[in-house]
Amino acid sequence: KANQQWGGRFSEAVDEFVARFTASIDFDKRLYRHDIQGSMAHARMLHKADILTEEELGSILNGLQDIKEEIERGEFEWSVALEDIHMNIEARLTEKIGIAGKKLHTGRSRNDQVATDIRLWLRDEIDHILAELERLQDGLTELSVKENKTIMPGFTHLQVAQPITFGHHLRAWREMLVRDHSRMVDCRKRMNQCPLGAAALAGTTYPIDRNYTAEQLGFDAPTANSLDSVSDRDFAIEFCSASALILTHLSRMSEELVLWTSQQFDFIELPDRFCTGSSIMPQKKNPDVPELVRGKTGRVNGHLIGLLTLMKSQPLAYNKDNQEDKEPLFDTVDTVKDCLRAFADMVPHIKSKSENMRAAAKTGFATATDLADYLVKKGLPFREAHEVVGKAVAYGLDCGKDLSEMTIEELQQFGAVEEDVLEALSLESCVEARNHIGGAGEG
Ligand code: ARG
């Protein structure tokens, strides 16, 4: 028999493969709570507009509430023939309450319905992600306070550059997350408009009150143009873009954690519970969590490109293509949440190996800039000081001595240094001297 939601025009039932091919119920059922939330708001609006009676509204609201509970108890029977979450719920509602169920879809289309559902769903997920970002930021702050005096080398080109503290490095990570947080807040703000009322594409002839619907659902306003309302998926792309940056940041942190746990660096220790062993090499403790987070960045970047490509060239207004927005969006949300959770759980338990960090800062001539600055303060122009210190470094490389290991006499071969140079070249003084806003010695 032809489809019960649109059978009128059709002379045969949809092909069985086509039914499965076009259905989205397998993945869009996770929108059920927000679909019901949107339907309840729509029904209340229809009642306010005198389109539904008090009684019809009551039975719709009760019916939807029961359906939600059926789904949560695992008793709801999903039907591929009913294609998606919207029609599954509507059909069940009619089965339960009869004729009033058939009135719910008055002045509405699945096009504005699905656009609303995804926004409601994503808004909740963003709130969760914001909370996880805050938890990770707090973990970094806490650890950075503990590691505020831990000297380590700062790198450029992965070559030892200047001494910094581990705390300063951790606060650099936190800055990335502060920007991620504000990008998510932005995305949430821009998407917080209600498409309901746009109906299929042109709006509806019923005396609807779009402000009332928007208000009930916590949206800031109704969307401004009906065609745009049902065809816009910018918010999903913006969300995936902000997520790709979060993952990019987590993968940069991951890369450093992986390097730092290697025997060659040996700067930190990750708790055993965040690592795994090898099935063949008994000595192994592998940093799997950061490695996997680094790897997951690939799929999130992929989803961003997938969604951009999905939307490219789509004519207005709704097209079935848009059903393809869900899986990449859902997987992005799941991945970002899992990765943030892993990091927020792990970061507070990172243990620094401060002796190794300090030893690494002592090799590689990390204080060379400070020696040049010292000479400048004694009156030498910077370019000349740079040259002088370069020669001292070359000498140090020859005889295997760091600047801090040279005697005053040795240093004096290159420039006019005095007793106070030794103090000026201590790792602590080098860090503390950079005590301006944003400097390594600020903490
Ligand atoms: N399942 C569809 C989607 O995800 C819902 C909207 C379908 N609308 C339509 N006219 N076929 O986009």
UniProtKB/TrEMBL annotation:
The keyword DNA-binding does not apply. PROSITE patterns: FUMARATE_LYASES. GO terms for molecular function: argininosuccinate lyase activity. Pathway: Amino-acid biosynthesis; L-arginine biosynthesis; L-arginine from L-ornithine and carbamoyl phosphate: step 3/3. It catalyses: 2-(N(omega)-L-arginino)succinate = fumarate + L-arginine. It is an enzyme of class 4 (lyase). InterPro entries: Arg_succ_lyase_C, Argininosuccinate_lyase, Fumarase/histidase_N, Fumarate_lyase_CS, Fumarate_lyase_fam, Fumarate_lyase_N, L-Aspartase-like. Keywords: Amino-acid biosynthesis, Arginine biosynthesis, Cytoplasm, Lyase. It comes from the Bacteria. Residues 365-432 form the Argininosuccinate lyase C-terminal domain. Signal peptide: none annotated. Gene3D superfamilies: Fumarase/aspartase (C-terminal domain) (1.10.40.30), Fumarase/aspartase (Central domain) (1.20.200.10), Fumarase/aspartase (N-terminal domain) (1.10.275.10). NCBIfam families: argH (TIGR00838). PANTHER family: ARGININOSUCCINATE LYASE. Belongs to the lyase 1 family. Argininosuccinate lyase subfamily. In the N-terminal section; belongs to the lyase 1 family. Argininosuccinate lyase subfamily. This is Argininosuccinate lyase. It comes from Parendozoicomonas callyspongiae. The gene is argH.
